[in-house]
Amino acid sequence: xxxxxxxxxxxxxxxxxxxxxxxxxxxxxxxxxxxxxxxxxxxxxxxxxxxxxxxxxxxxxxxxxxxxxxxxxxxxxxxxxxxxxxxxxxxxxxxxxxxxxxxxxxxxxxxxxxxxxxxxxxxxxxxxxxxxxxxxxxxxxxxxxxxxxxxxxxxxxxxxxxxxxxxxxxxxxxxxxxxxxxxxxxxxxxxxxxxxxxxxxxxxxxxxxxxxxxxxxxxxxxxxxxxxxxxxxxxxxxxxxxxxxxxxxxxxxxxxxxxxxxxxxxxxxxxxxxxxxxxxxxxxxxxxxxxxxxxxxxxxxxxxxxxxxxxxxxxxxxxxxxxxxxxxxxxxxxxxxxxxxxxxxxxxxxxxxxxxxxxxxxxxxxxxxxxxxxxxxxxxxxxxxxxxxxxxxxxxxxxxxxxxxxxxxxxxxxxxxxxxxxxxxxxxxxxxxxxxxxxxxxxxxxxxxxxxxxxxxxxxxxxxxxxxxxxxxxxxxxxxxxxxxxxxxxxxxxxxxxxxxxxxxxxxxxxxxxxxxxxxxxxxxxxxxxxxxxxxxxxxxxxxxxxxxxxxxxxxxxxxxxxxxxxxxxxxxxxxxxxxxxxxxxxxxx
Length: 590
Known about the structure:
Shape: flat
Strand content: 15-25%
Largest sheet: 5 strands, parallel
Number of helices: 17
Structural class: alpha/beta
């Protein structure tokens, strides 16, 4: 009897580990797979590429991992380190399988043996007749939970929908096995008790501990935005946002951009199992609706969760003869058609104020856009002329030090000046924004185009140009000279290199904008360096030129880093509005 004390008796369990355990394994991983996302994450966290620094950072995790392995081995849990896809064939002999791996958070892939394995390949190798429990509690594993369940209907799949600490997962593993031994329970019942104890001890209320749906670290917020009061005859804009807690500031900014009078009318933290692609239904119910007091554009709207802040808007028309003192509403949120939260809110209804119009002397000033454009062109000519003089003086003082660079800049200025002198200016009442990027950034160009058009500006981009008998470099320079501002999107690719000046078209466009004194916004993909490893061979050879270009840009202008399309759209829409107002005020003063 003593031989089996503290060991699992009925449940057969295996632990599959696809991350380094000890120092030797870690060092082998470092040298064999230096570009892996696992190592990239450590380098980013430590801001160092030294193997010693990275090991010091990982040493604590390694120690916890080794201790957990020893503890589970004592309780008859089989440990398989250095996991590969072939090992999935072994799990049919076990009732419970624990899987630990690094999930690549920028794509639908798992890192196994230093390589990115698409989750589709992982699922294909998974035994379709497995009837045990599969605890895939690696970060973002919920991205493939549903597909795995469809592939293997008899399997109980546990997953995590966000990034979770390794020490938390190790704690859950060891405590769950202890609970199984103590009360002779199955894995799900034991895990449920451990999670309940954890919630009670640390006061965390966002764990879903139902046996069929374990959700770790999922912190979702739901907020209703609306004005505090509106006048009779006006409209109420009701906005419902679903987002993660760390995105709260972005949500506030977005709500105010839609309605400057918006305030938070209700806010709740919700615990719900949700993954990308799930349907979210939002319903608006008017609780004190009189016969004709309020009218809504819709009482039910649907959206698809994409892992980023999302919103729906309801427009409520308040009758001129409204008898209610307030609009009382209830927002109901359903995920996959299951009710998860109800949120009540109130907007006060006030009498319409009749503004007293005071007489004032005024006169209309005719605005000549042609004259304004001519004045702007003359200022640009002066800027280019002054820039040429400064560069020539700099070449005389610097001697041979920077002569080639200065000659190139002078050539760019003179070329743009000749293009400007030969161009007849057409009347265009809308400010133009030149959008510059390499062709592989199309999805980001589309995002910025929406921001430009949403700010009542015209997007000047090569997609809108007609074919002309003009050299492409000259076309780009000519278009740049005819715009009011320039917006650059820079990523991993350097792009097409113009053979005469030996610069990419994007870099040429930047220096044209710089030398001619254009207002500029510059946005850089914050992951551009890691994405350079994914380029084809030709583009990888130019990667160093792109790094040097981005470094040069940062010396002349403030650059903004963006993480995804939503982040880029939010930043560009806000800053374009500020820049537009500044240019319009400047034009009025001139």
